[in-house]
Amino acid sequence: MAASLARDRRLREAKVRVALLDLAHGEPPGLAHYHGDVPTYPASVVKFVYLMAAYRWQEDGRLGIDGEFDRELSEMIHQSSNQATRKVFARLTETEPGPELSSEAYREFRERRQAVKRWLATLGIRDLHCVNPTYDGNGDLFGRDAQFLRDASVPGGLGRENGSAPNRQAMTAMGTAKLLALLATDRALTPDDSAIVRRRMRRDPNEQRHLAHRIAGGAARLGGLEVYAKSGTWGPIYADAGIVRHMESSRQLVLAVFTEASPAYHGEFIADLTEQCAKRLLLP
């Protein structure tokens, strides 16, 4: 981090949160972080959480992944569609957009919107505030969604310093890395479902050129690595979080990086850091 900050002025001007989990050298995994316990708005990184939740809900018999819902999951992850994310999140939480609710109806809505967060708590992860879908900003945030976003009494959001949206999404790099580590080691879902989720999250910068500056781009510089990740870009946020696996040895690491700056940071830091970590931890 010191070397990266020294050579990259734009990075020095950003708020940076990083967490790295080394899954390649025994148990418990080694953790390193840089402001990794500070919550931040995750942009589209949160979508991998909802993908995992969908498979857990299916394991529990609460929904089935087929047909239209399967297509919505693909659009949420591969195209990073906010419209698809709203549909997926509505299925997971049994809530729908609409006009503001009365006090009694809102209490039930409020509880349902925290369904994914409650599941994460059963995994021992309490610093991922994943309670909202993602929005395009074209009038799709209104009514009860806005009512919930204004609710400062829901613990875990970005708080009143976030203006009129204290209940906004919030994730830490450490919590993000820990959830991805559970996915990497088949501990949050069955081994079969974990493999399916990872496959849906597979990233290749040759297929999506914008990933050259993200985790997948850094891993591609070395060869022999696969990446299962979800990136996020919104306003000042430029982020990525994923699993990097060495295919021959099956060694793995997890990296989560959130940067926040105005104007947004779009440099090489995430790719450079991935390359350095993979060289150190994964390659022979």
Descriptive overview:
The chain has twelve helices and eight strands. The strands form two sheets. It has a six-stranded antiparallel sheet with strand order 2-1-8-7-6-5, sandwiched between helices. It is globular, with a radius of gyration of 18 Å. The two termini are 23 Å apart. The protein has two domains: 1-40 and 172-284, DD-peptidase/beta-lactamase superfamily (Beta-lactamase, 3-Layer(aba) Sandwich); 45-171, no CATH class. β1 and β2 form a beta hairpin. The chain is α+β, with helices and mostly antiparallel strands. It has helices at 2-7, 9-12, 47-59, 67-78, 82-93, 103-112, 115-122, 143-149, 173-184, 191-200, 215-220, 269-281, and strands spanning 15-22, 30-34, 128-129, 170-171, 202-203, 225-234, 237-246, 252-260. α4 (67-78) crosses α5.
Give the gist of this structure:
The protein is an alpha+beta fold.
Strand content: 15-25%
Structural class: alpha+beta
What is the CATH C level class of the largest domain, in words?
Alpha Beta
CATH homologous superfamily of the largest domain, by name? DD-peptidase/beta-lactamase superfamily
- Give the low-pLDDT segments: none
What CATH calls the topology of the largest domain is Beta-lactamase
Topology at a glance:
Blueprint: H1 2-7, H2 9-12, E1 15-22, E2 30-34, H3 47-59, H4 67-78, H5 82-93, H6 103-112, H7 115-122, E3 128-129, H8 143-149, E4 170-171, H9 173-184, H10 191-200, E5 202-203, H11 215-220, E6 225-234, E7 237-246, E8 252-260, H12 269-281
Antiparallel strand pairs: 1-2, 1-8, 3-4, 5-6, 6-7, 7-8
Sum up the structure in keywords.
alpha+beta, two-stranded antiparallel sheet, 2 domains, 284 residues, six-stranded antiparallel sheet, Beta-lactamase
